[in-house]
Design goal:
This protein has about 150 residues and is mainly α. The protein has 2 domains: about 80 residues, Hypothetical Protein Yqey, Chain: A, domain1 (Orthogonal Bundle), CATH 1.10.1510.10; about 50 residues, Arc Repressor Mutant, subunit A (Orthogonal Bundle). It is built from 7 helices and no strands. The longest helix is centred in the middle third of the chain and has 24 residues. The chain is globular.
């Protein structure tokens, strides 16, 4: 089942169950997909969909942080519930062991010898595993590997 069908089925179920949070998230996702498709003048690829979900997750994390700083805990909780639903559409993330193994392979493939080649290694891995590695975690691990 492709991502659009999965979202539409989820929306139907949420409407039947009167789950307003899930309905809201699914409608937001469908609207975002439609906007991107209009912008690109073609259907989205799976990779583009995962990028869209990743962006939305990042926005929700920023909102949660802002609401907590502002003392708006009820809004932060609402965003957290939506975030959990969005994470269902995120591709499975690589484990730390898998990332370490991939970093070693990338360092060898790129021929990185020091910190100056850090960007090449990160780009190599981000292109190889789009949406499956957190950029912050990866950059920290690559920096640690190239510094040693």
């Amino acid at each position: 089942m492709d991502y659009r069908s999965k979202i539409e089925e989820g929306l139907k179920e949420a409407l039947k169950k009167r789950d307003s949070t899930r309905v809201s998230v699914f409608r937001m996702l469908l609207a975002s997909i439609k906007n991107k498709e209009v912008e690109k003048i073609r259907p989205l690829s799976d990779e583009e969909f995962y990028t869209l979900v990743k962006t939305s997750i990042k926005q929700h994390n920023d909102s949660i942080e802002s609401f907590r700083k502002g003392g708006r805990l009820e809004l932060a909780e609402k965003e957290e519930k939506e975030l959990e639903i969005l994470k269902e559409f995120q591709p499975s993330q690589l484990s730390e062991e898998e990332i370490l193994r991939e970093i070693e392979e990338a360092v060898a493939a790129v021929g990185a010898t020091g910190r100056k080649e850090m960007g090449k290694v990160i780009k190599f891995l981000m292109d190889k595993y789009p949406g499956r590695i957190d950029g912050k975690v990866l950059s920290t691990m690559v920096l640690k590997r190239l510094s040693s």
